[in-house]
Amino acid sequence: MRFLLHMKISKLGRYIDLLLEEVINQTPPSGRRQNSISALAREIRLSECSNTRVVIFGGGTGLSTVLGGDSRIDEWLENPFVGLKEEFPLLDVVVCTTDDGGSTGQLLRQLPIIGIGDIRKVLLSLILRANLQKRYGLDDVSTMNLIRVLHAIFNRRFDEGFNDFRHVTNPFLSVARPLRRYCPEPLKTLFLTLGEYISPGGKGPVIEPGGHCLGNLILAAAILRSADETGCFPPDLNAILAGIRVIADAIGVNPGFLHPATATPGQLVLRYSNGVAVRGQNKAAITQRRLPIDHLFVECRDDASVSADIIRAIKNADLILFAPGSLYTSIMPILQLTPVIRTIRNNKKALKILGANFWVQAGETDISRHRMSRGFHVSELIEAYDQNIEGGFDGLFDVVLSANLEHIPGDVIRNYALEGKSPIYLDRERVEGMGILPVEATMYSPERLRTANVIHHDPQKFSLAVRALLIAHRHLNLKKEQTSSRPKVKRHKGMVYTDSPLFSSYHSEVKAMLSGKNFTPKSLGKTMLDIIWENRDIRIEHLKYFRGVKIVPAAGWSRSREWDNLLGYYEPEDGLLKIHEQAERDPDLLRASLLTALGESLLGRYIDYRQWINGEDISSWGMRRYEIRLRPIIDRACFLDDSALRCYLRFARMLESPHDPFTFGITLNDQEGFLPPGLLFGLLYAWYLNNSYGRIMEYEMSLLRWSPEKLIPYQLEEYNRKKELVRFFRNLVFMHKDK
Q1: Distance, CA of 439 to CA of 91 (rounded, Å)
Q2: Rounded to whole angstroms, how far apart are CA atoms 68 and 465?
Q3: Is 477 helix (H, G, I), strand (E, B) or coil?
Q4: Do residues 551 and 581 touch, judged by C-beta distance below 8 A?
Q5: Contact (CB, 8 A) for 174 and 167
């Protein structure tokens, strides 16, 4: 096969495609390279990789699936011992810790810890049969029954409001009674001890079970107990690793090979192409902005600590994998860690493989920068790394492993399309132009397709593909020289340091601020707290300018409909956010109304008076003028200082009078509509935080979806004004730091 060493990258990619199909799916090749492919395939099948040192990065379902199967689903129980964990015994797993949704998000509200939800998923998927049998002396039948016990406990999710602590103090209540006897006594004692630790009367913090995953509670208890034993709270790196090691060792996972990417809590910041930057990983999924993400940062209060074990594993690795998963929220945050990215680049010997997703993901890869109505292609995944990682993708990827979609039934593709999902296609030529070898293989699970009509990575096929690439690399050298002639990209360092409180500290400060306000009815207090947690761009200082929140009956609603038909506003005279009773019946409408009113409250009592001046009063027909006069600075009770307020009014199309610096106005024709500055501020505030809560402004700001080059001068002027409005809110209202 010596002649293959000098094969062009495009031909090499096609050759590897045929090789992968023979290795994975026993599809014999045809053509003149048939013999060499078959010979190499036989070698791959006979080879073993027990001495190959592997590091894999990722998070979420994608990582756990390729490691050992999707352990959330019942079908996993039929074959839990598959995937990379079986293929590569020397496997170090580095897990993203910026998850802030679901049960993990609730833990972050209460506790000063990292996001542990993805670690919990990976723990279950990494269980090894031999470890369980050696530790507890089990036969095959007992081992499989113990797997069922662990699956039931780790995946039990309590409903919101569930407060029966018996299911925490005794996790085995979540296991079918006939299976409980298969849990070895030492493991049973450990789980009971950890459950009691976080229950009333225990030594740790009490964590109410409602909305939580039981596996998360057990893992959190192990970490908190380790921190307690070492006298280190909040839990530091050693306490977190010790807690993970306790669980790993008890359930048959190789201890010391599962690593959180960092022990430092960090909050994702996603910045979209229209300039809006928002905090929180879960925000990307729930807002659905239908815009490309420009940049991703991680916001921390301290230097992000990375364990020496991670650096050592990367340095010694023969193979470095980037698991399929969420582009911006699973792998990219890990690569924002400078010690990690530099060590990956410095390891020149390891083969580095990027696993591409099957499908575009809403909120992340569903909108292409090049084709605004379409999802990503594989090359755009690489471009995103290039733009968001210090130093770009140089030295990160040698091979991109993509899914061959040719054999997926058309009706399955159509069903996914109806859900708004489309495949991520491999655009070979662009990937090759980046100096990265593109290969594709049929790696979906036919069983999952048959039973659930879904297309997911098959862990066994994925691990076979990785083994095939590793062995092929020894013969063919899959590392290609990456081009240095690609266009220069403005790159951003990923870590942003902040003085603002994060997660549990933020939640505590918000709760304290709201406790001093009046809510009518009182249930609005919890609603307000939940809204602010969902929208952590809201600064603590924003909560100083209103005195309470009140639901107003329809009969008592006195707000003028001259400007709008909104159901929430701020009343400067009494300092209340007032919400129409109609909004109370619709959770989304209530949230939109509260956010709009909260935004308006930031302007406080800035206006002394407002007035309309008709055309006859200004010696001109067919026009009218709206004027406001500002109060003295000391009387405004306004979040914005004088300079910022004047800047905002100009962006709101209000011009300062040449005769009186406290008077601002706008001249309109008689038929022209207009959003006064207070209302505009509230609407922009709600829209910025969540565009689905500010649909009026979604229309108003839609011009920012256009490329400036396609606009005529009038539109370009409006485009620039709206761009400046977004910048104003990003920097001065929500206090994001531009890089």
Answers
A1: 23
A2: 15
A3: coil
A4: yes
A5: yes
Whether residue 192 has pLDDT greater than 90: yes
Query: Hey, CA dihedral for 226, 231, 233, 237, is it positive or negative?
Result: negative
Q: CB-based burial of residue 573 (10 Å sphere; 0-12 exposed, 13-18 middle, 19+ buried)? A: exposed
What is the tens place of the pLDDT at every residue in 642-698?
999 999 999 999 999 999 999 999 999 887 888 999 999 999 999 999 988 877 888
Q: How far is CA 518 from CA 346, 441, 546, in A?
A: 58, 61, 10
Rounded to whole angstroms, the Cα distance separating 592 from 589 reads: 5
Question: Nearest Cα to 221, choosing from 160, 212, 184?
Answer: 212
What is the residue extent of each domain of the chain? 503-607+637-662+672-733
CA distance 434 to 382: 9
Q: Across the chain, what does the average pLDDT equal?
A: 92
162 half-sphere exposure, CB direction, 13 A CA radius: 17
Please list, in sequence order, all residues whose beta carbon lies within 8 angstroms of the beta carbon of residue 268, skipping any fewer than 6 positions away: 98, 100, 279, 280, 281, 284, 296, 297, 298, 299, 328, 329, 333
Q: Which residues contact 349 (CB under 8 A, 6 or more apart)?
A: 318
Kindly report whether the global pTM for this prediction surpasses the value 0.90. Answer: yes
State the DSSP string of 519-569. Answer: EESTHHHHHHHHHHHHTTTS-GGGGGS--EEEEE-GGG----SSS---SEE
3-state helix, strand, coil in the chain (%, to 5): 50, 15, 40
Confidence check: pLDDT of 458 > 70: yes
pLDDT digits (tens, 9 = 90+) for 18-47: 999 999 998 888 777 888 999 999 999 999
CB-CB neighbours of 203 under 10 Å:
10
CA pair distance 158, 161, nearest whole angstrom: 8
| pLDDT score of 416 more than 80 | no
pLDDT at 19: 94
Per the listing, tokens 């993805």 go with 118
Residue 250, class by beta-carbon neighbours within 10 Å (0-12 exposed, 13-18 middle, 19+ buried)? buried
Give the C-alpha separation, 503 to 510, whole Å. 11
* Highest mean pLDDT: which range of 218-232, 404-418, 609-623: 218-232
CA–CA distance, 431 with 223 (Å, rounded to integer): 42
Summarize pLDDT for 223-242 with one digit per residue, the tens: 999 999 988 888 999 999 99
